[in-house]
């Protein structure tokens, strides 16, 4: 079992478990249509936000297959996004990671900086063999983050499902532990 309650400090960010005090910061960006555009949910109202925050506050450990770790991403005292790592398979040592950020903080490398730390947890602390990430084909910013951190594009699913009333496609990226160890990000 691995608990992740201690903050992770990067050059500019603090990744840490969510607290009740994060509610307003979270709602500020989770309520935006442009944030929900590529997610399975619609923009959050106050009730949705409170429910999501309550769930995320409990997601601080990776003890068994299926567990999800979620960390708030704080910049200069404000939560500007969140990152997650899901332990998909113990047998196959696989994980999935993802991230959501306030668009007002886009283009500054914050998502890259935080995403690297989720990969570090997966490869260096959990000993995963493979971590993958997925995004809507129209979400160019998310695809660029995964490419920037050295993930391989493995698949482009064309019109794979009905997503918010229209055919949607999905990009899949992945990285293996040996690719992580060879990257500039590895410890």
TrEMBL record:
GO molecular function ontology, one term from the record: acyltransferase activity, transferring groups other than amino-acyl groups
Q: Which residues form the N-acetyltransferase domain?
A: 13-178
Signal peptide location: none
Key words of the record? Transferase
- Gene3D superfamilies named among the record's database cross-references: 3.40.630.30
Q: Does the keyword Transferase apply?
A: yes
Is Ligase tagged as a keyword?
Answer: no
Q: Which PROSITE patterns match?
A: GNAT (PS51186)
Q: What is this protein called?
A: N-acetyltransferase
Which species does this protein come from? Amycolatopsis suaedae
Print the organism lineage.
Answer: Bacteria, Bacillati, Actinomycetota, Actinomycetes, Pseudonocardiales
């Amino acid at each position: 079992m691995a608990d992740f309650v201690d903050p992770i400090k990067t050059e500019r960010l603090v990744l840490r478990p969510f607290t009740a005090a994060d509610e307003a910061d979270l709602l500020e960006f989770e309520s935006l249509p442009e944030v929900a555009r590529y997610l399975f949910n619609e923009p959050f109202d106050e009730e949705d936000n409170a429910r999501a925050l309550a769930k995320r506050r409990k997601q601080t450990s990776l003890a068994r297959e299926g567990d999800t770790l979620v960390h708030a991403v704080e910049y200069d005292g404000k939560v500007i996004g969140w990152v997650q790592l899901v332990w998909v398979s113990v047998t196959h040592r696989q994980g999935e990671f993802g991230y959501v950020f306030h668009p007002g903080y886009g283009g500054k490398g914050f998502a890259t900086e935080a995403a690297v730390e989720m990969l570090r947890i997966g490869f260096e602390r959990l000993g995963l063999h493979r971590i993958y990430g997925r995004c809507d084909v129209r979400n160019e910013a998310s695809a660029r983050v995964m490419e920037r951190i050295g993930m391989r594009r493995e698949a482009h699913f064309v019109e794979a499902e009905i997503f918010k009333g229209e055919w949607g496609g999905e990009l899949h990226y992945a990285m293996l532990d040996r690719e992580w160890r060879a990257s500039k990000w590895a410890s």
